[in-house]
Amino acid sequence: MLISVWEGSEARPEVERFRELWGIDATILLDETGDYARQLGIRGVPTNVLVDADGIVRDVGLVRLDDLHAAVDRLIADG
């Protein structure tokens, strides 16, 4: 699952355009207020934050696409 931190109007259409552009086939939640991002200590976007099924933050940052893919693969493998 993905969470988009969105500031401004028309968050859902913008997220859908992003999903189509990048071929993302996953649930994307909206953090329109930024509350969740603040709880995680995220100060700038875009920032990739990987959270496991138990709600534990496993990785923050991961700017390079190959690093992000590797971290996601590890997270999935760990179940």
List the helices and strands and how they pair.
Layout lengths: L1 E4 L5 H12 L5 E4 L3 H6 L7 E4 L5 E5 L3 H14 L1
Parallel strand pairs: 1-2
Antiparallel strand pairs: 3-4
3D architecture notes:
This protein is of the alpha+beta class and 79 residues long. The protein has 2 domains: 1-46, no CATH class; 49-79, no CATH class. The chain has 3 helices and 4 strands. The longest helix is centred in the C-terminal third of the chain and has 14 residues, at 65-78. The model has no long low-confidence stretch (mean pLDDT 81).
Strand order of the largest sheet: 1-2
- Uncertain segments are none
Count of DSSP strands: 4
Spatial gap, N to C terminus: 14 Å
Radius of gyration: 13 Å
If helices are DSSP runs of H or I spanning 4 or more residues, what is the number of helices? 3
Keywords summarizing the entry:
single chain, 79 residues, 2 domains, 3 helices, globular
Brief summary of the model shown:
This protein is an alpha+beta fold and 79 residues long. The protein is 41% helix and 22% strand.
